[in-house]
Amino acid sequence: MTRDDFQRARSPEAKRVREAAILDAARRLGRQHGIRQVTLTDIAAAVGMHKSAMLRYFETREEIFLRITAESWREWVPVLCEKLRAIEQSDADAALDAAPDAVAAVFASTLAAREVFCDLLAQAPMNLERNVSVDKVREFKFATRGALAEIVPAVRGALPGLSEGSVVDLVAAATALAGTFWQIATPSPEIAALYRSDPRLAHAILDVEPRLARILGAMLRGMQAPGVGAQ
């Protein structure tokens, strides 16, 4: 779509096409360069629009990425819940004993596979929610609330002893850690080379999925202790 196409379009459908193009460009640039590095000017250039024209569709770059964060939640949840239901269907005693680690592994693998989502999870509370209107924050929080409404029964199906509050804590921990760990695991090329060059800095090299799975597994086993997770 050319710059003239963007300027001529007036219908609601044309507006949806523009917004989709803007979101796709921002997602692509975020994957290539990291969310923090992408400016409104970068996104405008990628879709052939002037920066000022972008403001007809999104107030700020943060609004664009907050929308993508909400969409990423909606894309992640069905995949997560499908894998959790597979754990629920396995009702052997051995499987039940292994369920906390299995649930942890599902959270870790599905989050680690979504690098842009992990980046956004870190950026949302630090930056994205701080430069948008209250209404946009409200919309975003309702999106995450809807996600939790699907995740809670799926986790409790796999781990029946957990309370709703414990599952909410699990989701908060999983998403916060995934965002933080992804930032640690993706330093600049110069810093990454430094870590690899000195064995004394090996502890700074982080593999997101196994680290996240270990921590969440320990958390879930603790929650399953008598009188803890069922409260």
Largest sheet: none
Beta content comes to under 5%
Question: How confident is the prediction overall: mean pLDDT?
Answer: 89
Shape: globular
Distance between the termini: 55 Å
In total, the number of strands is: 0
Spell the H/E element sequence.
HHHHHHHHHHH
Unreliable runs: none
- The number of helical elements comes to 11
Indicate the radius of gyration in whole angstroms.
Answer: 20 Å
Which structural class do the helices and strands define? mainly alpha
Helix content: over 70%
Task: Give an account of the 3D structure.
The protein has helices at residues 3-8, 12-33, 40-47, 51-54, 61-88, 93-112, 115-126, 134-158, 164-185, 189-197, 208-223. It is mainly alpha-helical. The longest helix has 28 residues, at 61-88. The radius of gyration is 20 Å and the shape is globular.
